[in-house]
Amino acid sequence: xxxxxxxxxxxxxxxxxxxxxxxxxxxxxxxxxxxxxxxxxxxxxxxxxxxxxxxxxxxxxxxxxxxxxxxxxxxxxxxxxxxxxxxxxxxxxxxxxxxxxxxxxxxxxxxxxxxxxxxxxxxxxxxxxxxxxxxxxxxxxxxxxxxxxxxxxxxxxxxxxxxxxxxxxxxxxxxxxxxxxxxxxxxxxxxxxxxxxxxxxxxxxxxxxxxxxxxxxxxxxxxxxxxxxxxxxxxxxxxxxxxxxxxxxxxxxxxxxxxxxxxxxxxxxxxxxxxxxxxxxxxxxxxxxxxxxxxxxxxxxxxxxxxxxxxxxxxxxxxxxxxxxxxxxxxxxxxxxxxxxxxxxxxxxxxxxxxxxxxxxxx
Length: 363
Ligand SMILES: Nc1ncnc2c1ncn2[C@@H]1O[C@H](COP(=O)(O)OP(=O)(O)OP(=O)(O)O)[C@@H](O)[C@H]1O
Fold this sequence. Notes:
Layout: E1 5-14, E2 17-27, E3 32-36, H1 43-51, E4 58-63, E5 66-67, E6 78-81, H2 93-103, H3 108-121, H4 137-150, E7 155-159, H5 167-184, E8 187-192, H6 195-201, E9 204-209, E10 212-217, H7 219-224, H8 229-234, E11 239-248, E12 252-257, E13 260-265, E14 279-284, E15 289-292, E16 302-310, E17 314-321, E18 329-334, E19 344-349, E20 354-358
Helix pairs in contact: 2-3, 2-4, 3-4
Residues 14, 19, 37, 39-45, 193 line the site of adenosine-5'-triphosphate.
């Protein structure tokens, strides 16, 4: 089963500290939502309010349009899956998965049949008679998922469910989790501080910082067109340049930056419509820089390569622009590029990958 979730004006304070500050979100039924942000930004607090384990200080949560105020966890159509899985060590997998059904009074034959079906869904039906200690970390994680889904929640709340796994297994489980969510169609709200994990699994990502929602959208939108400096920086490596808007035409505007003038489509500005003289912060992802033949570039600064590392798919270069040598840029050059420290290169960029945000002074 599945449900929509609507969060309005949600605030939660602990003494005088605001762990959540005016959060608004609309989640559609069947979406895979990831709450992403650094430690302490309020992800678990939000998940706990959705699950009914914490009450909001103000604001509302509606699940399938039903107000959740005063509804205890057991009477909600949500199930929470915690990082440590909390499997019962003395129980066989079939009994672990059937535990919630037993609590709801389902007879043994029915719950064994249902639990077997969910073990099958996660590829562990042949291990139904085993106990948790006989499984790998990834298999235990799958049992916990089967157990959470067996009670047919409308919304599954997952608090760092892959946090205990090593990186390789984690990537594998991300793919499995996404495929499973597609199959069952349940709304998933998943907490992580791992940006790659969020991008790998989410339909939409909620980027949180200091209890507030900084950005909310599909991974590609947040990566390519972030709505804040924080969201830009949290979604991967990015270069920030300060700039001043110059000439504005109907569909493009020129910005004078520390590395020379650049022309950007108006759609790349997050401000309503740029005005001449306005100060902006330009965000350029490392892969959107290009090293080009000097003759083809108008106005952009050359740069000196200060360091190069080979990353297999690309070279990661540190650059010092000639026009602004105190500034450091990171650029990814193609695998085939011949770049070495002390090289002098001309810089260009792919305008599609550049965003202009209202100015925030660099730290
Ligand atoms: N019961 C509590 N009493 C006081 N402060 C709390 C309580 N629960 C959470 N906080 C504070 O609220 C803030 C948000 O906590 P929360 O656990 O939601 O963060 P998080 O984003 O889930 O972090 P992490 O990724 O480290 O789990 C933190 O500063 C935390 O110290």
